[in-house]
Amino acid sequence: MPKPNLPTSISLWRKIVNKLMTILVIIAVILAIIPLLLILGDVIMRGAPAISIGFLTHLQKPPNATGGGIANAIVGTFTMVGIASIISVPIGIGAGIFFSEWATSKVSTFSSFMNDVLTGFPSIVLGLFVFVIIVYPTKQFSAFAGGIALSFVMLPIIARTTGESLKLVPMTLREASLALGIPRWKTVIRIVLSTGKNGLLTGILLAVARATGETAPILLTASSSIYFAKSIFQPTASMTVLIYNYATSPYATWQTQAWGAALVLIIIMLGLNLAVKLTIGRNLSGKKVDL
Amino acid sequence: MRFRLLRGDVILKILLAAAALFVIGVVVGLAVELFLGSAPSLFKFGPSFLVESKWQPSNNVFGAWPFIYGTLVTSAIAIVIGFPISLGIAVFITEKLKSHLTFGYLLGTLVDLLAAVPSVIYGLWGVFVLIPIIRDYVERPLSKSLSYIPLFSGHPFGYDFLTAGVILAIMVIPTMSAVTRDVLSVVPNSQREAMYSLGATDWEATQKSVLPYARSGIFGAFILGLGRAFGETMAVTMVIGNIPSVSSSLFSPGATLSSIIANQFGESSGVFQGALIELGLILFFVAVLINGLARLLLWRMTRATHAKA
User: Fold this and answer.
1) Whether the predicted pLDDT of B177 surpasses 50
2) Dihedral over Cα of B98, B103, B109, B114: its sign
3) Residue A289's pLDDT is what?
4) Range with the largest mean pLDDT of A115-119, A242-246, B100-104
5) Is residue A234 included in any domain, yes or no?
6) What would the mean pLDDT of B181-202 be, rounded to a whole number?
7) Cβ–Cβ of B19/A94 closer than 8 Å?
8) Which of A4, B117, B217, B296 sits 20 to 30 Å CA-CA off A229?
């Protein structure tokens, strides 16, 4: 939009206010960027010295011993996110398809609204829920319970992104398929899903990233452990709970390792977010071809 | 043939509807189970639980007021700091960078990255970096010069309401600025052009036309940010000190609804556990209320815009 030249009679005061607001807005941006750079910088500077091959492959050690690692926590996190994905990916995608393809049904509208509400729930409430339904009756903290709690974190994200991205699939594609006599279920699976699959992938990656970084629900359901869990029905370590326990401990070695674990976690998160940006990029170019 | 076609459709619809119903079931199940889980405390203390300010696990006396108070205070600090900054970022990207789309996109991505950083890492950074900075450069000077104001009284250690509020502010900025950005970007250009044609400056166009037009959406963003601040757990738990207190000083350690659950749940049982779950029930209702309200506002805004376009 071309900006018209301002009339010369404009009062000095209005010019000053205009400049002042521009400066304030730029200050706001700087204020928001500083903590991001500080956090990333600190995690890299303090975390890098802690990281070695041994750090990634050894078990946790007592605070005064050297050579402790976070291998069990890495395995624990992946186990729980894996369990959560097995549960939440099919249900989330199913619900998302329903939101988009049966958008006018009352169940769809209500469920989609509930889904949005669920997205905004404090994750610790989800942890309490799973504690009450699984941990309390079985009297056992476990990776299984942790996985269920994380699946409730992932479910609304996957359902929402799936729904939104399938709504972007042009209606003409559905109409063309139905006009050829292809039944609706086949249209949904073969035409709508395959056109919108990048959006689905984005949703899953976003959800996995969120779940990987969650602490509170795991704290209440899987607790922690300093060993590899022998089964998914035992207390299990995770990277986030390990960072929490180590950071709040009084031992310097553990505190250093907390920064190391934070760096590993940040690298995983940035990797996932980069993957999301790439799939979204491809999605957009794909959309251009369709138009 | 026709029957077989229909059957496939029906099966798919039932499967998908079941998934959608599952989502509703999770929310309903949450309410029911939290209610049942908090029964020991719910029936013992009744509604007075909300206003009781004693929290003494050793005497089996429990009240939620210190945590409701802590949640309100820290969220208020977060919003007071975070909301103007978020609005500034959104205005900068949508109004000032109109002709520099790539730079605006990069800046937006950078701010979005803040949202991807796990809560526990904010906490870790808060404990080792932010607390010393706030304690030495903000709280000590303030308490030396202004200690007669109740807000700044007491001896600052860094583990307090102020630090928790500042870290929450950093965490709500990405949420609020992203939603505000989306809302401002759907304001039609004709709104700005009308102001420019009347001879308005950039700021006047933004202030008198763009912001009022996007009012309800910005309010939605505000509420969503508030919701995030209310529910945020780990970072707050690590920097607030977790002492149940109702103090007028920002330099006093305290606790929020979620931080006390994370901090004490491990060693709780019986009525104590019930009381902690009841705090979760309060969080649940607040979350339903806040998110429901925010979504309704945002839906109305986007719908109104679509209808006009």
Assistant:
1) yes
2) negative
3) 29
4) A242-246
5) yes
6) 89
7) yes
8) B117
Domain count, chain A: 1
Is residue A74 in some structural domain?
A: no
Residue A185, domain member (yes or no)? yes
**For A51-108, how does the pLDDT look when each residue is reduced to its tens digit (9 = 90+)?**
889 889 888 888 877 778 899 999 999 999 999 999 999 999 999 999 999 989 899 9
Own/partner long-range contacts of B246-249 (Cβ < 8 Å, ≥24 apart):
B246/B53, B246/B65, B246/B66, B246/B69, B247/B154, B247/B161, B248/B150, B248/B151, B248/B153, B249/B150, B249/B151, B249/B152, B249/B153, B249/B154, B249/B160, B249/B161
From chain B, the residues in CB contact with A14 under 8 A are: 201, 204
Domain boundaries, chain B: 38-308
Residue of B nearest to A125 (CA): B280
Averaged pLDDT, B139-144: 88
Q: Which residue shows structure tokens 């937006």? A: B108
In chain B, the percentage of residues whose pLDDT exceeds 90 is: 55
Digit-coded pLDDT (tens) for A220-259 = 999 888 888 888 899 999 999 999 999 999 998 899 999 9
What average pLDDT does the segment A108-128 reach? 92
User: Residue A1: which of B17, B98, B124 has the nearest Cβ?
Assistant: B98
Q: How far is CA B135 from the centre of its chain?
A: 24
Across the interface, which of B92, B129, B295 has its CB nearest the CB of A117? B295
Can you say whether residue B32 is alpha, beta or left, with left for phi > 0 and alpha for psi between -120 and 50 degrees?
A: alpha
- Across the interface, whether the CB atoms of B37 and A128 are under 8 A apart is answered yes
- CA of A137: which chain B residue's CA is closest? B37
Cα B42 from Cα A246, distance rounded (Å): 35
A23, two tokens: 């400066």
Residue A166's domain comprises: 80-290
Do the chains contact at A25 and B170, CB–CB below 8 Å?
Answer: no
Cα–Cα distance for residue pair A67/A69, rounded to 1 Å? 6
Q: Does residue A252 sit at the B interface (CB-CB below 8 Å)? A: no
Residue A192 lies in a domain: yes
Specify the fold of B38-308: MetI-like fold (1.10.3720)
Contact B234 A117 (CB under 8 A): no
Q: Which of A17, A91, A112, A121 to mutate to test the interface with B (most CBs of B within 10 A)?
A: A121
- Is B107–A29 a contact, with Cβ atoms under 8 angstroms apart? yes
Nearest by CB to A125, from B30, B122, B129: name it.
B30
Residues 6+ apart with CB under 8 A from A93: A158, A159, A162, A200, B19
Q: How far apart are CA A239 and CA A4, in angstroms?
A: 55
User: Is the pLDDT reported for residue A147 higher than 90?
Assistant: yes
pLDDT of residue A288: 33
Whole-model pTM: value is 0.90
Please give the mean pLDDT across all residues of chain A.
88
Q: How many residues in total does chain A contain?
A: 291
DSSP string over B232-247: --HHHHHHSB------
Q: Examine the pLDDT at B62 and tell me if it is beyond 50.
A: yes
The ipTM value here is 0.89
Distances (CA, A) of A70 to A40, A54, A198, A259: 21, 9, 33, 12
Question: What is the arithmetic mean of pLDDT over A178-207?
Answer: 90
